[in-house]
């Protein structure tokens, strides 16, 4: 018989496969390392740049707010402003000559705000919450600042902490006469009542601040966005489509948990991954939030991925070329050697082996020549031994059927014939024929477990005819274990022993056969609910199972012979084990290796 090699099992196929796997793994690992390194380096550089940008803006804001606070303190602590404010707070009936003088002094003091950029307007309000003096924009005289929620929050902050100035969140500027009611933030500075020394009913200088030009002028790059959060709300947000509302909510949640460096993942194609760095200003405790899109990082990853795919394609071509060269230098002598072995398998021993090849091929050739010589010497001897062995196996298998059992079956058939039960006679004779065919004419020493179980079931069904269906049984075997190869006639002798001894003097009996997997072995468990055995007898039987090596032809279907056949075939780790209690039934466990 010529040995035909499947393409998947050839050395050429395996060499191509192994080379491909090794090269592809190296390329993928190398590409992933490059991707990881470039991603980390890019993210580190982005973080450092973003951190520097945030810290720079914090320094600028602190410097700006400090300058603004200094100017505001210069204004509110000035003698002229305090006198003017105190006069308005103390007198309902105003002497306009005095007020004209005070107003000129207050306006002159407010001109100091020109030294501070990004002040949109300012107003000094009295203790009654209404405007006294304004800067740049005119203020509605009847507008009561004290009734506004944003101003009440400043009053509450003033009660819990003492500062020179307080910053509001976003609030409407609807107090302006020109109707520009856009939201703004303000710095509020108390003006102490000069005459009454009343620390609770202060007047205030309110300066509306525009942060946008200051922040936008110092980001340095368009892809970096800056936002400001005062701990409760956003004071300034970038006008950017790259940052969605859901991402802003996630950033706010991270800030609430005290995180100062994190990445916000984008969802879908409309959102991009964002790198976020935050820091807190010293002047007002605001969070300056730097936001940078990681789109460039994603583009870099995509570029590396294309590089990996391209390299894999090129490697495939290179591997095909290399494997072709290797097949000529290495595989051709191997293929010639395989062809020689194919000739040996069909009985042609006059073969020649490759010469002047590699040392490994030469060793194989020499070994093959020695093997041919050994085969020729052993051929005759093997034929003689196989002939003797076949004759011995046939005699042994033919003797496996107990003559007493055959006699009982024939007597049962006779009784059925007398009673005219033709259907049962047909059933019994069919089952008996299958048993004889299996035990006598089946030439194999090992059979699938499913076949052995079917033979055992045929035996039980025949016995049930004798016992008038008083034997109840169940056989449980997973389909995945059905093809396990086991020695012939190892279960039926145990079942026969249970019927003969276990169910003696009993009306009915129940028998179970279960097959289970135990790691690399299988266990066949035969259990009956018969009379059981004394503990001493059980121990003696188990001891004989473990140590007795004799084979008893007189009891060829007995438990000891089944155990000895298994131990001789598979070793001392396998065989039978008996578990029984008096009047509690008996279990026999057959342990076998799992052989497909």
Describe the protein.
The model is unreliable at 550-557 (pLDDT under 50). The strands form four sheets. Strands 1, 2, 3, 4, 5 and 6 form a six-stranded antiparallel β-sheet that branches. Strands 8-7-11-10-9 form a five-stranded antiparallel β-sheet, with helices on both faces. Strands 13-15-16-18-17 form a five-stranded mixed β-sheet. The longest helix is centred in the N-terminal third of the chain and has 66 residues, at 11-76. Among the domains are: 77-214, PAS domain (Beta-Lactamase); 352-394; 399-593, Heat Shock Protein 90. Helix 1 (11-76) runs antiparallel to helix 7 (295-345), helix 2 (79-90) crosses helix 3 and helix 7 (295-345) packs across helix 8. A hairpin with a 4-residue loop joins strand 7 and strand 8 (234-236). It has 596 residues and is an alpha+beta fold. 51% of the residues lie in helices and 18% in strands.
